[in-house]
Amino acid sequence: MKIIPFPGGSDVGPEENWAAELEAALIGTSDGPRADSWRELREDVRATAPPIAPEFERELGKRIAERRKRRGRLRRLGGRLGLLGAPRRPLAAALISGIGVLVAVSLIVSPWSGGGSQKGAREAFPTVGAAGPSSAASGKAAIQSALSPSAAATIPRVSVSPATAGRIQQRAASISLGVTPSEVQSTADRVSRLAASDGGFVQSSHVNVGQGTGEANLMLSLPSAKLSATLASLGQLAPVRAESQSLQDITDTYDATRRRLGDATAERQSLLRALAGATTAGQIDSLRERLSQSRNAIAQARSALQTVSQHASTAEVEVTVVGDGKAGSEALTLHRGIHDASRVLVVTLAVLLIAAAVLLPLALLIVALITAGRTWRRHQRERVLDTR
Amino acid sequence: MVMSPFVPSADDTGSRAISRPGLGRARFDDAAFDALFRECGADVHAYAISLLGDRNAAEDVTALAFERLYRSRSRLDRGRGTPRAWLFAIARNAALDELRRCRRQPQCELPEEMSGDRDSEQGVENVARRATVRDALAALPLREREVVLLKFHGQLSNSELARALAISESNAGTRLYRALTRLREKCLGLERQEVA
Description:
- The complex is a heterodimer.
- Chain A is of the alpha+beta class.
- Chain A has 9 helices and 5 strands, in the order ααααβαββαβααβα.
- A 5-stranded mixed sheet of chain A has the order 2-3-5-1-4.
- Residues 83-87 and 111-154 of chain A have low confidence and may be disordered.
- Helix content of chain B is 64%, strand content 0%.
- The radius of gyration of chain B is 17 Å and the shape is globular.
- Chains A and B meet through α1, α2, α3 and α9 of A and α1, α2, α3, α4 and α5 of B.
């Protein structure tokens, strides 16, 4: 007769008490026949399983030891390669994050780097002598200017439309430099020296330095070909507060003046031929008077042509040097630094934001897929238990 | 008996105590893994063979469980249970995967081979009683049988059992209660049959 001393009997109490009693009995903190019967049941259940085969246990132990040795060798190799102590998962996470940031940065940068419209804007400024032989450009005079009134450190580089082949153009520019009042005079002197060194000269100059303030206005005449370089050099002298450039097409004026000169020259030639054939004193006097008028007309036309050519080959640059308390170079340097730092921060934040915008949905998708996969696997496992 | 550093010491009855989460704070290094293997290897095998009813499959599951535990030991969260509980959760998943992979019904009969002293009267009585328990276990639905096996072979607390089963602790307690009640009924039924 087998007696199963099953604990609890039919008067099992509430589940909580029952569970506590079972736990206490199994960890050995309770005594008595009920606790003994729980422990006995545990041993009976454990005894129903056949023992593990010693050869399998030995084999498994050997395999584990071998695997550990292999891992140990790999870890030592990793240590030599500088990967010691670097856990696999953080490394993978760092790699994925790095790739994500690179993708985000490339997404940000690519739209801005493709055009290259800013590249060489100054260098593209036209020179009269470089005008080509043919052109489909408009003949209308055009003045294009760009002015940025913003602070010195944020002045964008300005440029007018590039030279049109076959056209004659007159260019002008103005630039405003910010300095401390004590630096107004010295800066004006440096501007003058710079103009002279670039082959130009100072047409007019007005320097006014007072108590805590000062201003200098200089009108420079520079070779058109050197305008861009001179403006760049002026920007090196002091922080630029404003800059503008303008361009005017004077091809029609130039052509008209040349035609006038040609007409006047041709008229003089015909008058000279007529004078050679004149027979009467009246005819001779009349022709001489007309020749005199023709000479004047030719001189005027030549002068006009010279003026137009002068306009085309030289550029006028108006330089204003403003000196005030808050425009000190040190303050501007600090301002520039703060501005640059804030810009770097803004760009960094933008990069991070875009990276997050790219990575977050991706991460959510991956998490959702992993969760769904785990749920499905768990469901499949649980289904096995319901097979009988 | 070799004890894992994560498991409290054995009680005075000589049986192994149920692991308590948070008690073991030692680093789960290779030595700890070895200790866990020595302590739990036979239990995992017993759990697997009792669930699958096939020695080869049980050995595969045992090896796989330790393999997975070794690979995931760096992720071991001791705040959520002991390495023993972690190991049995892995073993359970591996065993269910094995059942699913082979697309076969689990063996209804538990292995006939059982250890025990058959010379003394007490030994004979023990063997007979255990045979009844074995038959009653075999007659249990698989879902209830695995709870009993996890509880007694894994020596898991109810909270660890809940984590292994991925259910709430109260739910695990209820499931265990029902399984043991059913086991008791089966044992009584088998005894009555014997008497009759």
